[in-house]
Amino acid sequence: MKNTAQTDLQITGMHCAACSTRLEKVLNQLPDVQASVSIATEKAHIVYDPNKISVPELIKTIQSTGFNGHLMRDFAAEKLARAAAYRQQQIQFYISVALTLPLLIEMLLMFSGQHFMLPGWLQFALATPVQFWIGRRFYTGSFSSLRSGGANMDVLVALGTSAAYFFSFAVLFFQLDQPLYFEASATLITLVLLGKLLEAHAKGKASSALEALFNLQPKTAHVERDGVMQELAVDQMQVNDVFLVRAGESVPVDGVVLEGVSTLDEAMLTGESLPQSKQANDKVYAATLNQQGLLKCRALAVGSRTQLAAIIRLVEQAQGSKAAIQKLADQIAAIFVPVVVGISVLTFIGWWLAGSGFTVALINAVAVLVISCPCALGLATPTALVVATGRSAQAGILVKDAAALERAHKLAVLVVDKTGTLTEGKPSVTDLICQPNVSETELLQTAALLAQGSTHPLSRALLAHASTQQALPTQNVNVTELTGHGLQAEIDGKHYLLCSPNFASNQGIAVNNEQIAHLQKQGKSLIAIACDKSLLGYIAFADRLRDSSYTAVKRLSEMNIRVVMLSGDNQATAQAIAQQLGISEFHAEVLPQDKAALLQSLKKENANALVGMVGDGINDAPALAAADVSFAMRSGSDIAIEAADITLMHNDLMSVVDAISLSRATLKKIRQNLFFAFAYNVLGIPLAALGMLNPVIAGAAMSMSSVSVVSNALLLKRWQPTRR
């Protein structure tokens, strides 16, 4: 088995989708390296074999490709670095504007019919620092790109502006009878810089949800150590520290309430707008807001182990991952630049052969290069995904992988586990039905003795009820689990069995089918308790339906999604629950090991559609892994959450409706962005080739196309989850 490690590196120097595609290709050519590079987040997620390559070597490879990479810093440090780089870009832009403005005024006066010309030497003096100092980034970027066998946006800008600049240089110094185009090269570089500034600002807004998450956790906490209350930095807190949370303060770390009663606003964690009451033994989570009383708590998880840290990791992971539609756009961008250069060369040759002269041919070829920048194409998908994953986190929907968010809109079948998903997963004892020679206390004590080592929800409910009836067992026994059926044990030479009525019947134990059917039709689950093949009695349980389950099933049906319920219960109980929820298709008495097989069967039946799964238990994990898109309740097991693509912090099926709704809204934005990007190039390149676009106007249009795509993606912030 290969030894693998993974790291996230912050990348600087990428200007377009071709850059990220090229860097990804170079990294993936290294031995046992799998890399995903995002232009939207400017990060590289790399899985590698530490025995074959180290992180410094990965960074060196990135630098050899013409970019810079460094290990992820904490969010505050990264924000400061980005702000410093943005200020530097602003300064360069302002200097470029100051140098270009006289040239631009001259050009505008010419358009208005006034023939005012700056001296050639002054035009040269103004344009040269813009071309080679301000525009140096385009030359270095082009060199690195071409050296690694690719071509990016820098190549187009460098070729276009250099053609205009060096043509003007030749006219000036060889005193040729041709016009100067210093203003065109300088204005193009200034406009590209403007577009990059606007794009960087918009991309910053796209990741604002992630920044908001980082800013939620308080910086200090009131911690009790050695009997003294002191104010400590949150990053110095340790597990089992006792801390106070006053009214109006945020909880510093995950913990459990020791003393006090209050209500907490947990909207940042679950998307739930209603405050949650807290008292002794209730859990509290970092960054949730204490609205009323004083709480004394004990720390359970600190630093990177808190729920907030887990949310941030998932959002970062999702924002750095790529959807299939993005990979297609990257492939197109990779071949786009060479094709454009070819069209530009053909444009030049065509106009020259047509007798229009060298100058006209050159200007039209430059316009083709400038108008064709693939920035908008590269930003179309990742910016929409960054906004969507951030917005989903705010709504309590944690997306592990952008591909899952993309696939969710294609769901046609949704398999839903009953217990803990449609129901609250907290069954309670409703009936004790004893045989004539058995008392309720004896039945309950025997059942509790068998159930005491089990983590099954029915076992927990049974033990909780036994505790209230002072019927908890006073001895320990060696219990054997009968997977999917129940429990058995040898006690004082007798064989005891706690199981489903069907299994009991199959073991030759006489059961009252009429009595069982009556209770099951009420939606109750039953277990039978027997000793040496003789029935002692039954215990009935009821699991309350979640308040939103009926509405969620109805909404899913309205979205043309077929809902299929899975249950380990008997046919009658499962049917009663399904009828209450309006579910027409269900599978009862499904064993844990059969859930994944059922998912595979449904996928075969629906070969042209996607099948999703919602669950919360350990036994749901294989089925969740088998689904095309999987959802796990936050209240469920860690294994189920790990196996799922999307975690629902709100713990109800309506969050699945919201996730699918957001997926559809996101794909709609991506399609709009791709349409705008393709339409822009499809229309712009022919116009430029036909001589209908001035290079300066082409440059302005190119810059604004990227800004418009990012701005359109930002409209996803308006998406709202279903009101509860």
Mean pLDDT: 82
Fraction in helix: 40-55%
CATH superfamily of the domain at 399-424 and 545-664: HAD superfamily/HAD-like
Reported CATH architecture of the domain at 399-424 and 545-664 = 3-Layer(aba) Sandwich
Main-sheet strand order equals 14-26-25-24-15-22-23
**Cα end-to-end separation:** 48 Å
Cα-based radius of gyration, to the nearest Å: 33 Å
Helix vs. strand class: alpha+beta
Beta strand %: 15-25%
Treating each run of at least 4 consecutive H or I residues as one helix, how many helices? Answer: 26
CATH topology of the domain at 399-424 and 545-664: Rossmann fold
Top-tier CATH class of the domain at 399-424 and 545-664 = Alpha Beta
| Low-confidence parts | none
Global outline: elongated
Largest beta sheet, briefly? 7 strands, mixed
- Total DSSP E strands: 26
Question: How would you describe this structure to a colleague?
Answer:
The chain is 52% helix and 19% strand. It is α+β, with helices and mostly antiparallel strands. The longest helix is centred in the N-terminal third of the chain and has 37 residues, at 75-111. Helix 11 packs antiparallel against helix 13. The model has no long low-confidence stretch (mean pLDDT 82). It has a 7-stranded mixed sheet with strand order 14-26-25-24-15-22-23, with helices on both faces. The chain has 26 helices and 26 strands.
